[in-house]
Design a protein that fits this description.
Elements: H1 6-16, E1 20-29, E2 39-42, E3 47-49, H2 54-70, E4 76-81, E5 93-101, E6 106-111, H3 115-125, E7 129-135, E8 149-153, H4 159-162, E9 169-172, H5 177-190, E10 195-198, H6 202-214, H7 219-222, H8 239-263
Parallel strand pairs: 6-7, 6-9, 7-8, 9-10
Antiparallel strand pairs: 1-2, 1-5, 2-3, 4-5
């Protein structure tokens, strides 16, 4: 157990984009180790704060971690009698509320802080995602950054491809066509992404396809690359118009994948602001 309070732990986990379960005593009957309103935060490796310790807390931790493992998003209530079955002698009973928080989130790597990148980053930052914005040129980033965006300045931009987890979204729009090609090769060689979009025209795609085939990448793998990227229905050449088109395609891709996963069982959140989501 850490020494951090539950509220500080929630703030830190939100900043890091890590999932957790908030456990709250919502009802107490008779003698209980802590009163209603006591909370603790459970993440995969640590506990923060306490609901009283003992077997009750251990059982609550098990339930919370099962919820994390299954990526459950539904809150649940559980009633516990604090007697022999829990190895506790309080003699009362308590009701716990388990609230899963912070998952799932799309993980997005945006390569390039040029005009379109600067228009796109605030749009993506307003969505429930974790955005890493990557460029070798520190002076190209705006000050201040959009909230909840992680700025990454690295002269070796290619290193950042391997730092993203499987299932990530990659958006490539750097100032250098050769770097774009190197990034495309690295991303396609991984071939474990949810989305890979490369800014450019149909002629740029044709040139890149030829070079990527020369480097040994299979045609079916290269076909996963979106170039030109963005929704074709959203026309325009202004940076903001291009950015809106790309953001729309990312949202559409995420929601399509969410629907596919929901067919096999549990629904997961869509990449839309809460105000725009349809009731479940």
């Amino acid at each position: 157990m850490s020494n951090m309070s539950w509220i500080d732990a929630l703030a830190e986990l939100k900043q890091r984009g890590e999932p957790c379960v908030l456990v709250t005593i919502v009802e107490e009957q008779g003698s209980t180790p802590r009163n209603a309103g006591a909370k603790m935060v459970v993440e995969r490796e640590r506990l923060h704060d306490t609901i009283g310790g003992g077997h009750l807390e251990f059982k609550a931790m098990q339930i919370a971690r099962e919820m994390l493992e299954s990526r459950s998003q539904a809150a649940r209530l559980e009633r516990f009698a604090l007697g022999a079955s829990l190895g506790q002698c309080c003699g009362g009973a308590t009701v716990l509320l388990f609230e899963p928080l912070g998952q799932p989130q799309a993980r997005i790597a945006l390569f390039g802080a040029g005009h379109v990148g600067r228009a796109l980053a605030p749009l993506l930052a307003g969505l429930p995602c974790r955005l890493r914005w990557i460029d070798s040129r520190e002076e190209e980033f705006p000050d201040p950054l959009p909230a909840a965006v992680e700025r990454v300045v690295n002269d070796e931009v290619l290193e950042e491809v391997e730092r993203m987890p499987a299932g990530s979204y990659f958006i490539v729009m750097t100032h250098d066509h050769q770097l774009d090609l190197q990034l495309a090769e690295a991303i396609l060689k991984r071939n474990d992404f949810a989305y890979f979009g490369l800014i450019g025209s149909k002629s740029k795609r044709a040139r890149f396809e030829h070079r990527l085939h020369e480097r040994g990448l299979a045609a079916e793998t290269v076909q996963r690359m979106r170039c030109p990227m963005g929704l074709p229905e959203v026309k325009g050449k202004l940076p903001l118009e291009i950015a809106i088109s790309i953001a729309g395609e990312v949202i559409a891709t995420y929601n399509a994948r969410s629907n596919e996963e929901s067919q096999g069982g549990e629904r997961i959140a869509k990449l839309l602001p809460a105000s725009r989501r349809s009731p479940a």
